[in-house]
Amino acid sequence: MKGLILGTLFALGGLVAFGAEQDSDQEIYYILQKGFIKVAGTTNLFDFKGQAVRHEGQLVEKDGSYTGKLLLRFVDLNFDLPGVGEVLERADYMNDKVYPTISIDLDHFTPAKKPTEIKAELAMHGATRPITIATQFEYLPPVVKVTGSFSIKQTDFNVKPYRAGLMKVGDILDVQFKVFFCEYYTENANLKISAETAAKLATDDKISVLMEKGFFGCEEIKKNLPSGQK
């Protein structure tokens, strides 16, 4: 069993303890601040896109089946056009002061089977709708790499596409992401991966895996652990 987890949640680039010890029959994979989450749309005059500067979420594995969550905060989206933040705040559009996040709950899936799509539920603007995400998985223990894409209609979530003067925002938003999740062990941490796997993660994805006495997992996670758990 992973030791000294204390039910930590990897969020906002750090590990925040919330008290309960993790169940012994499940494994938690914490999201890394690697990869990207992008949102893109169109207007009748130009296209626009934004990218999240922080990633939040986790995967939970139990009995070979995985569930997961991704959380995207509007405040963490950097857009390529000025003034988008002010538009998102408008009460007659996204109203992100009242509805600050987009959350994606991933249904049961098995990364080792490399599913080409998975079912999920997306919550935005007070509405929740089922979606299907086109996916690619790569499982390089202790890391799960997930690449995915999907499109949504704003009107499906009770959002009227923004317009100003002659400019009209299209109804469809496209989301693309490449995210990495990593598990770690502090008890019985005598696990090893091949030099080839470690080199691939370091070279391709800039992820460093530590195989030390008392710790096996990603270096980024160890850096964010509370001092008593390092």
From TrEMBL:
Lineage: superkingdom: Bacteria
Keywords noted in UniProt: Signal
Lipid/polyisoprenoid-binding YceI-like domain boundaries: 29-182
One Pfam family linked to the record: YceI
Signal peptide: 1-19
Keyword RNA-binding: no
RNA-binding is among the record's keywords: no
Protein name in the entry: Lipid/polyisoprenoid-binding YceI-like domain-containing protein
